[in-house]
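Look over this entry.
=====
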Amino acid sequence: MDLVPALEEPLKKVLGPPTAKVMAEHLGLHTVGDLLHHYPRRYEERGQLTHLADLPMDEHVTVVAQVADARLHSFASAKAPRGKGQRLEVTITDGSGRLQLVFFGNGVHKPHKELLPGTRAMFAGKVSLFNRRLQLAHPAYELLRGDAEESVETWAGALIPIYPATAKLESWKIGKAIQTVLPSAQEAVDPLPGSLREGRGLVSLPEALLKIHRPHTKADIDDARARLKWDEAFVLQVALARRRHADAQLPAVPRRPSPDGLLTAFDDRLPFTLTDGQRKVSREIFDDLATDHPMHRLLQGEVGSGKTLVALRAMLAVVDAGGQAAMLAPTEVLAQQHHRSVVEMMGELAEGGMLGGAEQATKVVLLTGSMGAAARRQALLDLVTGEAGIVIGTHALIEDKVQFHDLGLVVVDEQHRFGVEQRDALRGKGKQPPHLLVMTATPIPRTVAMTVFGDLETSVLDQLPAGRSPIASHVVPAADKPHFLARAWERVREEVGNGHQAYVVCPRIGDDEDEPKKKAQEDADKRPPLAVLDVADQLAKGPLTGLRIEVLHGRMAPDDKDAVMRRFAAGDTDVLVATTVIEVGVNVPNATAMVIMDADRFGVSQLHQLRGRVGRGSAPGLCLLVTEMPEASPARQRLGAVAATLDGFELSRIDLEQRREGDVLGQAQSGARTSLRVLAVIEDEEVIAQAREEAVALVAADPELTGLPGLRTALDALLDEEREQYLEKG
């Protein structure tokens, strides 16, 4: 492998051990190459000032601003009882807003001399709230003297790069370190094939690195970013294309349902007709199952679009063809629930080998970690003999002891809860690689699907089955309008009075889960999130007194959880106060109302998932998002967006735009250092789509990438060992 010596050089040789240690520990940077790929987050112009008005709370920021005034105060404290304590308060401004800086003790002397009114400087620190005003305590700073030779040279003229930094290492120190290693950029080996680069008019990699770290004009930054985006998109798409190519070479047993077998018998007993969407997606799946290489398909379906039914029909088709199907669920509650609903949907078709079972019937077994030894032994026996055609379970299915007679299909529910490794471990259970169907109710924009699940073909179910009711959603501003919250509880009582049921969702369980440490960390301005146990207690004694209230959370014993869910499903409970354990798959058509407490503490997709638990029957659903956040806050805008639309794809775009893509990819690309630094999954849709086309063509022509050592090096850097194995497991 042609390694690039200059870029492989460890930072401790170049920058010295202390700086290198901080870079490794806090920024994950180990070599010269890593540092060169640590790009500026944005650029300040020497003549301009940052917007202080929109600084994020609790984040480490770097700002360029001017000192408006500085005052030294004396005060008495335990350490300085005679009023000798000193506090320096400096106010900085940028025209849009003001920000207070504070320095204490011996730390006041230097800034007191240097930060005089009118001085301009870069300041770095963590934004906190004190007396309801934003401040930076003991910020690091670097004076900007317009005339000093050194600073002008270091900051490359007018544009000052601001780097993602940490409390231990300010942006300008990172900038200086990068200036030290920048000459090595000349030796960067280009991963893009020359023809692609010229065809797309992209600058070379050394030039892009130079321009991103030391731009002279805004056009330099645009050139560099355009080029580096292509690198990221292309290298990732080549990795995925190689995986798809390798998968297509694998053998698999084609599974075609028999004309009058289990699937036909099941379809005949369905009390409704399939939607057009379900038919279309089923056709795509059956076509894949009939081929002699493994299906890898992602089934995206809106909450309540009938994904489970589509998956069950695929499983029945495989059982028809003599194989077995396994469904993997992320939690025991969900595995039990899937098992219950599959057995109900199949009726006597799920009673294989039993009296009263239909002649085409098979056995449907449940396998979870908390089952008793005898039940578990029986389940394992049914799997190894082939008696059970369908097994539903948690990751207990992946354990070594679990052996299948002939595993033909693996269905994974809620992909983002499973690492790629777990997916592969289960696929390894077949004599030949089984077919794979991954389901998710989190709508994923097309580009994210291409980036994160690029090794899977995608099917989308976007029609709701007939008879599903619309869900009305409203934000309840509890702090501004307490009477709205009182009305929310009245609405819950009304729903129960009409014979329906309700959920109340809280972010936390309560009891002893929070050590005192956490309490101490909560800022004076921020109360801890509401907890299930406290809220259930307050509701039972207060606004919902007299109703049958139960709680459900993740730390309950599995049998207790199941008992609570059964009572709720049977209508013996009026109100279920729960954590997000109900987020996925819980199906109680009679539940029509949901109140989400501290709704601002949940993500957009999570709120959408939770809301999908109501309105599953013929009565309309109601979802109330309770928050104490002020009207102008981003959190309130987010909740407003959720209340305004039921379209999950629209919400997932909003979610992505508000979070950084790294979070989304970080969850899904188990094992990858999040590889995206300049590529924005939503904005760069075109680049990703074009990169995918180029990658597919390249891999088809030369799967081993023989003529492209630079691309191979880049792939090695992207795929650290764990991820490399994942790509090779197939």
Summary: The chain has 28 helices and 21 strands.
